Automatic annotation (TrEMBL):
This is 4Fe-4S ferredoxin iron-sulfur binding domain protein. GO terms for molecular function: 4 iron, 4 sulfur cluster binding; metal ion binding; oxidoreductase activity. PANTHER family: PHOTOSYSTEM I IRON-SULFUR CENTER, PHOTOSYSTEM I IRON-SULFUR CENTER-RELATED. It comes from Vulcanisaeta distributa (strain DSM 14429 / JCM 11212 / NBRC 100878 / IC-017). Keywords: 4Fe-4S, Iron, Iron-sulfur, Metal-binding. The keyword Metal-binding applies. The lineage of its organism: Archaea, Thermoproteota, Thermoprotei, Thermoproteales, Thermoproteaceae. Residues 3-33, 35-64 form the 4Fe-4S ferredoxin-type domain.
């Protein structure tokens, strides 16, 4: 069984910048006050720092089986 990680930024993102600051892999990027975006999902290590630190619960990391 193989897994990859899906990283999704939800519509209630306010662009606070926390997620792209805490991500150790450069998966996320953005501009302050604009919705964050996923730059390179394949680099995600599944550390969940983005999800755990978002004050708005606006980012979700999900293992996908394939
Ligand atoms: S931490 Fe949450 S609200 Fe802030 S930019 Fe990232 S997804 Fe958006
Ligand atoms: S789970 Fe970790 S590596 Fe993946 S996007 Fe979030 S902070 Fe970056």
């Amino acid at each position: 069984m193989n897994f990859r990680l899906r990283v999704e930024v939800l519509s209630n993102c306010v662009g606070c910048g926390i997620c792209w600051t805490v991500c150790p892999k450069g998966v996320l990027a953005g501009r302050l006050r604009s919705k964050a975006y996923v730059l390179n999902e394949s680099l995600c290590s599944g550390c969940f720092s983005c999800q755990n630190n978002c004050p708005y619960s606006a980012i979700r990391v999900t293992p996908i089986q394939y």
